[in-house]
Design a protein that fits this description.
Blueprint: E1 5-6, E2 18-20, E3 25-30, E4 33-39, E5 44-51, E6 57-62, E7 71-76, E8 81-85, E9 90-95, E10 102-107, E11 114-119, E12 124-128, E13 134-137, E14 144-149, E15 156-161, E16 166-170, E17 176-181, E18 188-193, H1 206-214, E19 225-230, E20 234-239, E21 244-250, E22 273-274, E23 282-286, E24 292-296, E25 305-307, E26 321-328, E27 334-340, E28 344-349, E29 354-360, E30 366-371, E31 378-383, E32 387-392, E33 402-405, E34 413-418, E35 425-430, E36 435-439, E37 447-448, E38 457-463, E39 481-486, E40 491-494, E41 504-505, H2 506-514, E42 523-528, E43 534-539, E44 544-548, E45 553-558, E46 565-570, E47 583-588, E48 593-597, H3 599-603, E49 610-612, E50 617-619, E51 626-631, E52 638-643, E53 648-652, E54 657-662, E55 669-674, E56 681-686, E57 691-695, H4 707-717, H5 785-797, H6 806-811, H7 816-831, H8 855-871, H9 875-885, H10 888-898, H11 903-908, H12 914-930, H13 934-943, H14 947-956, H15 960-970, H16 976-991, H17 995-1004, H18 1008-1016, H19 1021-1033, H20 1037-1053, H21 1057-1065, H22 1071-1087, H23 1113-1125, ...
Parallel strand pairs: 45-49
Antiparallel strand pairs: 1-57, 2-3, 3-4, 4-5, 6-7, 7-8, 8-9, 10-11, 11-12, 12-13, 14-15, 15-16, 16-17, 18-19, 19-20, 20-21, 22-23, 23-24, 24-25, 26-27, 27-28, 28-29, 30-31, 31-32, 32-33, 34-35, 35-36, 36-37, 38-39, 39-40, 40-41, 42-43, 43-44, 44-45, 46-47, 47-48, 48-50, 51-52, 52-53, 53-54, ...
Length: 1460
Amino acid sequence: MHERSLPASPNWYCSRCSDVSRSGLLGVGAKNIIFLIDVSASSCRVVGELAGHRDLVSGFSFCQHAGQSHLCVSSSNDGCIRFWDSDNKVLIKEHAAHQTPVAAVHWSPVDKNLVVSGDEKGVVVCHWFNTGDTSSFFPEPRTIFCLTCSPHTWSTVAVGYKDGMIVLIDLSKKGEVIHRLRGHDDEIHSLAWSSLVGEDALYNRPEDSEVANSGAPAGDGTGCYLASGSKDQTVRIWSSAKGKSVMTLKLPYVKKRGSAVDPGVKERLWLHVHWPRGQPTQLVSSCFSGELVMWDLTRTGKQRWTLFGTSSEGQNHNRIVFNMSSVLVQDNRELLISTSMDREIKCWDLASLDCCWTLPTLGGFVYALTFSPVGTGCLALGVGDNMIRVWNTLTTQNQYDTRSFWQGIKSKVTALAWHPRKEGSLSFGTDDGKVGIYDVFSNKPPQISSSYHRKTVYTLAWGPPVPPMSFGAAGGKSSISLYSCAGEGTILQHDPSRLSGEASDIDKLIRDTNSIKHKLSPHTDLSWKPDGKVVAIGNEDGCIEVYQAPSLKLLCSIQQHHKIINTLRWHHDHSSAPELHCLLASGSSNAIVYVHDLRAIIENPPESPVVLTEPHRRLCGHTAKITDMAWSPHHDARLVTASYDGTAQVWDVLQEEALSNYRGHIGYLLCVDWSPVDPDVIWTGGKDFTLQEWRVSKQEFTKPPKGKKMLELKEKTKTNPKQKKKNKKPPGAGGAVPLEMNGGPVTGPKATKEQEPSEDEEDEVSSTNSSVPTVSSESQWKSSAAIKSKDKTDLLKKKKPRSMLPISTSMDHRPKEDLLQDCINLASVKHSKAPPAGCVPGQGEHIHLGLFSDRQALYRMFEAEEEAHVEAAHFDCVVYLRLWSGDLEGALQLATERGELNDHLLSVAPMAGFEVWSRTVEAFVKQLCLQEQYLKAASHLLSVNKLYEAVDLLRSHKLYREAIALVKARLPAEDPVLKELYTCWAAVLEKDGHFSAAAKCHLAAGASFDAAKVIARKSDVSSLRTAASLARISGEVALAQSLALRCAKDLAAALDWVGAQEVLSSQESLLVHRLHLCVAELLAAMLADPQVESQSCVSSHPWVSLGERHVCLQDRVRDVWEQQFGVSQKSEGRRGVGALLQELKSAESPTPTPNVPLRQVQLYSSLHLTRAVLSWLLDDEGQLIKELWKAVAWFRDAGHLSVSAELCRLLFPDADVSVFSRKHPKILDHTEEEAKAAATSLQAFINYQHLYEHWWRSSTRITNGSAADSRPADELKDKVMNGEISESEESVCPVTRWCDKLDFDASLLLSERHAACQAVQRSVREVQERLAAMVVQHSRAQEGKPDSAEKETDGPTQISTTTESPGSQASADAGRRPEDQDTLLTLSSKMSEHQKQLVELPDTVKMYPHPDVVECCLVLLHVSKASPSVSESLQQQAKDLLRKYATGPTVHKASKQFLT
């Protein structure tokens, strides 16, 4: 279809956007099109396109199977997968299985029907070409960057992710992950499988053999190598069998032109890898600046890699490489095709590593193309990627011999013009208004004019100088000037020899020469006649003016076009027919080309300008605006035109005949030129980023498409959403490196100059190859087209503002005749005293004339407009109309009624008076409250001095913080409202659990007591400590003491003794409690035996160290009190012992229970010890012994018998209660009966413990450390009471018999008074148990409801008297006579009798009990069998007590062996 072509640049930042088929057809994704290029070892040629995607092509892959090599697949950011026939260039099928942009696609080398794709969300989809089925997998929730199918196993796919993870998945197992390959720490850009099966190719180096042997056996044939390239600057070789890396290659820093590598190259790196076919030990990878490197995987060091293209300069790419693919050609040579950011496609010979050819590509619209009039065949292109290309189209060695120029260019190149006589001098204009001149045969930067246009430069033309540049000395005057026309409508004349000088605006000369006073129409194009005598200038209003040089006298004005002039061209003057030299062709936005013959006017200039309204020839056929045209230099009156209809048309102008129509472009055309050497060749460029060469004689069509065909062509070509022109550049489009930039879009040669651009206008697609990836950007590879499309959609969704005057506006859209009559009517009203009949401006059919007549007419128009707005419920418009007409109060009233007051209306309300303003504010406040804008409402109340109402409003909606701030800012500090606010807020905060904030409110309100109580509610240590401090500072002494004491107790329970003392030290009146905690700390330290309790102390005082073990507890307490707290017998005042004891007596001391924790028991016991020591200091022996008894009893009654015994040892190391202290000699001699009873009880319990210790020692000696060693004392006690001590345990060998005497008074344990008391108490317990059992049995019987007769015959319920086994209970009941069986009545009488016996017993016996006397008798009798230390009298006494007071079957059983 076309001869040669420069395609669009391949898309950037895609892992596989190009591929080569088996037959040598290269497919490249560029924008939303796939270009097909036929490649060979010597040349390449663009043979077609695959168009249809709605967004950027993100992936492309050929089917590499024989018989299907013409099939290919592509993916896009629109989420679609498309299958194509590359031979016929048609779409076969489309799959829309992805919901997000597709990142990669690959046609399986093993299964000819399998295609695998992955998207940005991590979804992998399998497409089956033959059936059309799809299946989705989600192996990892990560962003996919690339994927590749294994060339050996159909089900194995390698997937690379953005975060550096590589995953091998098995498609046959629903995407199950085989291996996760971890090693890279940045984006995976490329993956490549080795073409050979097995993993033995790399194990011929000694250093690798260890690695091979550490895992699976090398070369086992079960796996295959996988190469990966990452942004972390490394290439890794992975073993798919072992799932780990076997080799890491660090990219070499290849210095270029003697310069070091840019420090920021990591951000600019794209690392692609390619494994050549049949070469398992060689790998190709890209490098930092576009170099290609061949790695020899069997070598090390610098010999490991070889650089491509070293045989000559300039072979390598100069920017990063994105894709590589290879193909085998006829002579079995393998060619490598690479695409790069430098917009070049290169072909390499993998045998020699030399570049075979280079195909330039274009990264933007082709805005301008022109052949040099001096250098034959030298074609210049102005492209939207901020570069100029100069192509030597006639070279034979390299058919794509191009050079790129980018220095000094920061935006799109929109205009070009070769110097008519100086070879290599090329002028250019850019989108940012810059004009410059390049010398294309040198490497110098361009000359830039110091005069800039404000808008895009559209036309450049060389012509003779005109004043003032044509004045001056003969030697200094330039023979030619450069003219530029830009979007702001001005034409500047530049001196090419002095571009630094100021350019002149030719409009001044035109005005002066032609005495023009009115404003000139903005200029849009100019064209000098080749002989330089006249210049044609096109204007925005469609007028063409022809001026005579050098004075620029106006010769004629052509009033033919009615839209903006886009292009003007004079016929060349080397024609054989002189009458053709003055033909001027013009093209505008109305699609018709007009040709005018100006020979008569030019040869015989008229004195006054002539107006031409008829053309010499009219060329009709295009269906959209004309963008460019060119006369054939080889023919007479033959013209080619380029149009927005997407075609180029060749015309025979004199015959007005269409000769040939070219339709090879996708999208509209922007430029055209005729070949200077071949009459049959024309070059065109356009929106599709391509330059195409085509022959006139080979075109199928002669005329542009029309009607349905035109619509079909539009549907085919416009695959992107229509977008209106935008002058803003996309994000990231502007950068510091011009080579990378495309800049913002320009919609054609004159688009920005039109007031109403054509609806067919479209922006160029800002693809990934049109923007510079900034250093910090990670997503530059993504398309910005989707963003622009979204912006466009949002723009379309915006509603057009509602008209305030809809009726009068609609009247201006009537037929033309009515609008003209309106002008006559208005003139009559303005200038005649008697207006036309029935014409009342602002009323009826003439309502719209109220806008152009007097004020009364305007008010009439407003009234009619208001009525219409009310009917349409557009009350906001009514309000504004009333405002405009001065009815401010009415406007406010309407807005109030409708609830549509706003800040603007409120701001103008004061103009209507204070009362109106105040009412409006109150109404607005109600409206704001309904809208829940309470702060704003309160602020408006302040504006009318309603402070208390504002505060109430805030308080009622629980905005206490704001209300308090307002009151404190505006009212006196003593105002009661403030305290009320604080109190209310504190209640709310306390209810919600915000105790600290509530306390602050109470403090601010002066309620310190409440503040402390609130903080203490949380009951943790920090809160209690804070509350105590707060109460102390506030003067709440009693509360401070209470809270400090609570806090100290909690700290003591947590064994934080230092913290507890610190809390109490702040309160001088709490000294006695400090003494209590001191005793508790010492007691805890002395009892802290691992066998008793394992506890970790948070903090303790230095004086707690145990010291000497023989010092009793009370002596240590007394010493510490005197040294640390200054409390002794001599202390007075607050430290007086009497006062302290009196204060401590009021402390809480509950009754011991078995469920109290040991730490709490220690605190309670230490309280009694503290009282005991204080009594000692007061010489109150009676109180002393009673408190000591209570301290010991707390442990005993709480069930901690061993701790109780240990405390007795700490208090009485000599086991004598009368000896209280040796350090401070103190012998207790009690005269008071109660004190004597307490001392006797305490001594009895000490002796009781010694009795068991004596028996324990005897048992241990008898058994010589056998199993008896491990038998606890409690177990011995149970066996004694149950009568389970066997004869064998009591038998003693004569050799081992021991004769230790009892070292205590055992007779104290055999108190008959206490034995009688205990017997009565046992009887009471027995009766209580029987009663309880009877109640339980009765309740069960009631629930089961047995037969009443049966119940009566059963007789009285039998109650078990002890916790015996069921067998023993049965035997006991069997032995009981029927008359002895208990009833409720007999049990009650027994209970009364026992209660009387207890009352008769002395109080001291009941208050200060002894150990169980029966138990002590049994133990003594057991000891007497093994030791003669128990006297006969003591044994007899024990037996007598047993006979008298031993009750219950178990006790009878235990004592039976001693009493028979």
